[in-house]
Structure formats: structure tokens, C-alpha cells
Design brief:
47% of the residues lie in helices and 15% in strands. The strands form five sheets. The protein has a five-stranded mixed beta barrel with strand order 10-11-15-13-12. Strands 1-2-3 form a three-stranded antiparallel beta sheet, with helices on one face. The longest helix is centred in the middle third of the chain and has 37 residues.
């Protein structure tokens, strides 16, 4: 319970609840307070600045629950202002200069998803170069504001009005045109044109970068965009990966013809990309693909049916087909490029049979396609088609994990904002012990899964730079992130929805849409079982498992802060156990080994996340802040050891609100040492 400074009298004059602007007649202030406060205090940007040189500025985070406070000057309290609730606690704890008068609820219309997420800035400080981060930050802040406002509104509209297929024109001619709502087209303008999300990794100049943007930075942009709109990020990622495939395996002629259009930042010049693999009889079993490639009229023609085709209206399609006479299984598959338009301007010979009526990702068109003699171009070595396609699949898998992490963050933001604003039993929900514990538990997965995804993006950058060790590590970290993060997103979003009660279950709020979208991540680009088997295969056959354990062990050996090193002891022990398991696994019966793949991948993912959280905690501890150590220790207790978090209420609240935590204070008792 909050108490006033000694000698002060608390005058609670009632509550005012409601959305939008609050201007209480007894106060004479709007929701942001005056620009200049009595006694020399000022609100500058997002900080409360004291006139005294030795008094640090107090950050003012965005929040729906605000408190009317009076600031003390000398012996008396002589001016009032509305501040975010948690900021008032900070001011009181540091300066004992305020007393609390009244709680009011104000709406956070247009929150900035970047400013509201200090964890993203910390993660980027760990994995991105300082120059790249400095260059990216203004653009990330701009996108964060758009994602919390205009993009979010456009996404809600686009998902309420999914695309429709116009198969014929009024004269009966087959046209197979996918008609999108204007809101979706406007989202495309922001993604492809304003921010260049599909182009930024392929050429310099996007957002002023002197070279292609690193994957770590690109993923930060996608992380923010996904928090507003999940569906469109699929076409963005497919266009990005289509350009990557052509750049890696395409002929010089193909690169010259297609890369400028796939990486265009003008919608008028842009060609979007897609990947058509799945068939009715060939989902996870890619080797069962029946689409045939035939040599006809001096070129290749494709015949067959594709069952799930995301971004079905794309102009450049990468697909797998079996050349006539090729052998069975994946070894007999070739990779082909199918253009939507032929050089003479006519449409290629394939039909969009219908659009799928999907549970989620409803703004984006997914359809069924029949190739009926479609003109196709081989890409790379026809005998290596599946191996080449695996490159596209793996990039898409990491992108899927990233999008799921973005959904988790948005769901947590909604639950936290709602629980701060909503009152029950005379208190904000966020102050109720069980709700606080729910939020703290969700936060562990949000920050842990984010760490794993950006770890994978860092290896992707290094692998692209020619680092053979990073290439091996990328081979296991990518499916590991896809396996764990996409599945965990279902739980996180579902729990966040429940914290809103009945409001979370209705379409007026974003949680229902987030939940539908969350179920897709663990399905496309390989279901949980398929990806778990890929983790096992990478760990055993390609030596990537031992490489990952070595990398994590080496990172733990470089920890500097003593409390962080002590917390890492249980993780080191866990890594040793997995190392022993890797030695035993080859001797197991194949059926038993396969049956244990999901459990093995889960253990490895949780250990990896725990090590990465400690790695981040050590970076933050160097500044004297042990907040991330509390997160890491609680993750170890709950996810590795199956124990309660043992984090007391003040510490949990401080972690949720991103308060700075010192090492010497009692709030960390029991939280630093998990074993």
C-alpha cells in the first residue's frame, strides 16, 4: 500500500474512470499536465526534470492509469500534475517529494510499441552493432508509433474484410484476380514502400543505410510491425526470401530480371514473391510431391496442384516439381520459378481455384493453385532442388518465430495495459497478487523467446558473412526457435486474453485476432513434430548440437557479475546433462529416439533461453541494474527446475514495470540464486 511522506496528509478525492482525455475541473490540468511546473520542475519529452543538478530525471512511461500528485517545494505541497502511476512511485521512492491525491483512468490511444518495450532496446544493444542501432532507432520509434496507432487500425479493418477471388471478368474471361480491401493495400504501402522491409537486406539505400540492413535490425522492424499486423508480414517475408533464393542460386540473367522488382520500394514497381510447396498428398512429406515438370517447346512447363499457397497473388513464385524421369523422394525434386506474367504481357497458365477460409491471418490471401502447363524456369541445380528450397524454408522458419514473438509481446502489452487501468475490489488488477503473478509469468516467456529469435538472427548475419561456425549454429538455432517460440505463443496469447476476461473474447479488442494468428506459427513451414525431428537431425547428424552447447558454455564463462555467475550454475549443469544425452542418443532404437524428439527439443530450447537471459542480464548488470537477472533466475526456476519463481511482490512489480533493481537491496533476496 502506498503511504505519504511523514507529516503529509493524503486526500483521496475519488476516482474518475473512462477513455480519452481527462480534464478534472478541480485540477485544471489535462492528461499530460502542464509543460512548466511550479518550482522549476519540467516535463521534457518523456522525463520529469528537476531544477536541482544532483537530482536525476525520472522517466515517465506511457500508461493508462495516472495519478494526480502534488509536488513538495520546501515545507509545503504547492502544485499538482497528472503523471503515470508508476512514475509517481519512482518520484516518491527517490525524492519523497509527492503525495498521492487521486487516481484517474486515461486511454492510451496510439501507444508507441517501441518506447513501451525497453526490452527490445536491450536485446538490440546485445546483438546489433552500435552504429546500426543508432541509425535504426529513429526509424524504429517511428514504426513503433505507427504500429500502435494507424497500422493497428488498418490491420483491424483488413482482417474484418478478407480478400476475395474474382475468377472471371464480366465477359466471362478467366482473370483470377485477388481483390484486397484498401486497408490492406495501405498496410502494403507502409511495409514495402515506406520502410522497405522486403528490400532492406538485399541492397543499400533503404532507410538511408549505406549497405544492406543487418538481419538483426530487420527483425526488429518486423517485430514491431507484427504487433499491429501479422498476416501481411508473411508476404513481406516471402518476397524477402524469394529475392534471397534468386540471389543465392539464380542465374545472372534471373538476377538481372527479378531482383530489381523484388527489392523495389515503390508499389508500382514491386513484384511480390511466394513459395508454393504443399500438395494434397504432400504436406510434411515433401518427397510425395506430384507436380511434374516437362520439357516442351524449348522450355519447362509445370502440371499439378498446390494445396496451400500463401500470398497467392504474388508475381514471382518459387516451387518444387519433379522433372519427368527424375527419381522418387526429395532427391528427385527440382526448384522452379513461375512468373505470374509472361514476357508478352499475358498471364501464365495456372489457375487460382479458390481462397482458403482460414482461422487467422485473414487479411492475407491463401489459395489453391493448379499449374496447367505453366511456363517455369529452373533455379540453380535441378538435382539440388530440395536442398536449395531448404534455404528458403529455414529463413521463413526464423521469420515465423520472430512473428510469434511479436504476437506474444503485443498480447502482453494489452494484458498489462488493461490490468493497470481496470479496477476490481477497489484496486487496479495489476496490484492483485494472482494477476501480478500471471503478468510476471507471461513476461518470462516474452523476453525469453525474444532473446532466442534475435540470437538466431545474429547467426544468420554471421553466416551470410561467411562464418562457417555460425552456419553450423544457424542450422540448429533456426528450427529450435521455430519449434519453441511458435508453440509457446499459443499459451502466452491465450493467457493474456484471459486476463481481459470477457473483453478479451470479443472482437472489439485485439486479443481474439492475436490468438487466431498465434495458432498458425507452429503449423506453416513445418508442424511442431516435423521441426522437432529437424532439431534432432541437426543435433546428431551435422554436429550442430555440440556446437550450440559449446557456444552457450563459452558465453556463460564470460559472465562478469558475481550474482549472474552464481545463477548460471544450474544452467551449466543442464548443458552438461544435454551433452551426455547427445552421446547416448545415437545408440537408442530409432523409434524411441524419434518419439523423444519433442521432449529433447523442448529441453534444449529452455536451456538455450536461460543461458541467453543470463547473457543479457550480465550486460545490464554492468550498469548496476539487476532487473534482467531476476527474469533469468525466475525463468530457470519455473521452466528448468519446475519450482515457483520465489519472486516477492515488490520485485515482480518492479520487473513488470521495468524498474531499475540494484544488487544490494532486499527485493532481490531469493531471486538471484535459483538453486
Amino acid at each position: 500500500m502506498l503511504v505519504d511522506p511523514p507529516g503529509a496528509h493524503q486526500a483521496r478525492v475519488g476516482q474518475v474512470e473512462g477513455e480519452g482525455e481527462v480534464n478534472h475541473p478541480a485540477l485544471g490540468y489535462g492528461p499530460d499536465g502542464p509543460e512548466d511546473l511550479a518550482g522549476g520542475y519540467k516535463i521534457e519529452g518523456s522525463e520529469l526534470v528537476s531544477p536541482a543538478e544532483n537530482v536525476p530525471a525520472v522517466p515517465l512511461p506511457r500508461g493508462k492509469l495516472r495519478q494526480v500528485v502534488e509536488f513538495r517545494q520546501g515545507a509545503g505541497f504547492d502544485h499538482r500534475v497528472l503523471l503515470p502511476f508508476n512514475s509517481c512511485i519512482r518520484v516518491y521512492n527517490r525524492h519523497r517529494r509527492v503525495r498521492f491525491l487521486e487516481e484517474v483512468s486515461v486511454g492510451t490511444e496510439n501507444p508507441n510499441f517501441y518506447d513501451a518495450d525497453p526490452n527490445l532496446a536491450l536485446v538490440l544493444s546485445v546483438w546489433a552493432g552500435p552504429d546500426d542501432l543508432a541509425r535504426a532507432e529513429p526509424h524504429l520509434r517511428e514504426l513503433g508509433a505507427l504500429a500502435g496507432g494507424e497500422l493497428d487500425r488498418l490491420a483491424a479493418t483488413a482482417n474484418q474484410h478478407p480478400p476475395v477471388l474474382r475468377a472471371f471478368d464480366r465477359d466471362g474471361n478467366r482473370i483470377d484476380e485477388v481483390v484486397y480491401h484498401p486497408a490492406y493495400r495501405e498496410l502494403e504501402r507502409f511495409a514495402f514502400e515506406k520502410f522497405g522491409l522486403a528490400a532492406m537486406s538485399h541492397r543499400p539505400g533503404v532507410l538511408g543505410w549505406p549497405r544492406p540492413v543487418p538481419h538483426v535490425i530487420k527483425y526488429a522492424f518486423k517485430y514491431l510491425f507484427t504487433q499491429a499486423e501479422f498476416g501481411l508480414v508473411c508476404p513481406v517475408s516471402l518476397t524477402d526470401s524469394t529475392a534471397r533464393i534468386i540471389r543465392l542460386f539464380g542465374s545472372p540473367d534471373q538476377q538481372a530480371r527479378y531482383l530489381p522488382r523484388l527489392t523495389a520500394t515503390s508499389l508500382g514497381q514491386l513484384w511480390q514473391g511466394a513459395q508454393f510447396i504443399t500438395e494434397k498428398q504432400a504436406g510434411s512429406d515433401v518427397g510425395a510431391i506430384g507436380t511434374v515438370a516437362r520439357r516442351q517447346a524449348g522450355g519447362w512447363r509445370l502440371y499439378g496442384h498446390k494445396w496451400f499457397c500463401s500470398n497467392v497473388s504474388a508475381e514471382v513464385i518459387i516451387t518444387l516439381a519433379r522433372p519427368e524421369g527424375a527419381g522418387p523422394g526429395t532427391r528427385g525434386l527440382g526448384m522452379f520459378l513461375v512468373p505470374k506474367w509472361l514476357p508478352d504481357g499475358t498471364r501464365n497458365s495456372y489457375r487460382i481455384e479458390r481462397l482458403k477460409d482460414k482461422l487467422g491471418s485473414r487479411s492475407m490471401a491463401t489459395g489453391e493453385v493448379t499449374f496447367d502447363g505453366a511456363v517455369a524456369e529452373p533455379v540453380g541445380d535441378l538435382g539440388q532442388g530440395f536442398k536449395q528450397m531448404a534455404e528458403m524454408i529455414n529463413v521463413s522458419r526464423l521469420s515465423n518465430a520472430l512473428r510469434s514473438a511479436g504476437l506474444m509481446r503485443r498480447a502482453f502489452f494489452e494484458a498489462l495495459s488493461y490490468s493497470r487501468r481496470r479496477t476490481a475490489f477497489g484496486r487496479p488488477l495489476a496490484d492483485l497478487p494472482l494477476v501480478r503473478r500471471n503478468l510476471f509469468d507471461l513476461l518470462l516467456d516474452v523476453e525469453g523467446c525474444t532473446a532466442l529469435v534475435f540470437y538466431g538472427a545474429w547467426f544468420l548475419d554471421r553466416a551470410d558473412a561467411g562464418d562457417a561456425g555460425a552456419t553450423r549454429l544457424r542450422r540448429i538455432v533456426t528450427p529450435l526457435a521455430k519449434f519453441y517460440v511458435t508453440k509457446r505463443a499459443r499459451w502466452v496469447v491465450g493467457e493474456a486474453l484471459e486476463l481481459l476476461g470477457g473483453n478479451g473474447y470479443i472482437e472489439d479488442w485485439p486479443l481474439a485476432r492475436l490468438l487466431r494468428d498465434a495458432y498458425l506459427g507452429s503449423i506453416w513451414e513445418g508442424t511442431t513434430n516435423i521441426v522437432a525431428l529437424d532439431v534432432l537431425r541437426a543435433a546428431l547428424r551435422e554436429g550442430a548440437g555440440e556446437a550450440l552447447l559449446e557456444d552457450l558454455t563459452e558465453r556463460l564463462s564470460r559472465l562478469q557479475a558475481e550474482p549472474v555467475r552464481r545463477a548460471a550454475e544450474s544452467v551449466r549443469a543442464g548443458l552438461d546433462r544435454v551433452r551426455s544425452e547427445l552421446v547416448r542418443l545415437p545408440d537408442l532404437d530409432p523409434e524411441d529416439r524419434e518419439a523423444g524428439a519433442v521432449d529433447f527439443a523442448g529441453r534444449l530450447a529452455r536451456l538455450t533461453i536461460a543461458a541467453l537471459l543470463l547473457y543479457e542480464a550480465d550486460r545490464l548488470a554492468a550498469t548496476g541494474d539487476y532487473r534482467k537477472l531476476v527474469v533469468a533466475a525466475a525463468y530457470i526456476r519455473t521452466r528448468l527446475l519446475g519450482q515457483p519463481p520465489e519472486t516477492d511482490a515488490p520485485t515482480a512489480a518492479a520487473v513488470i514495470n521495468w524498474e531499475r533493481l540494484g544488487a544490494g537491496g532486499s527485493p532481490l533476496t531469493g531471486a538471484i540464486f535459483p538453486v
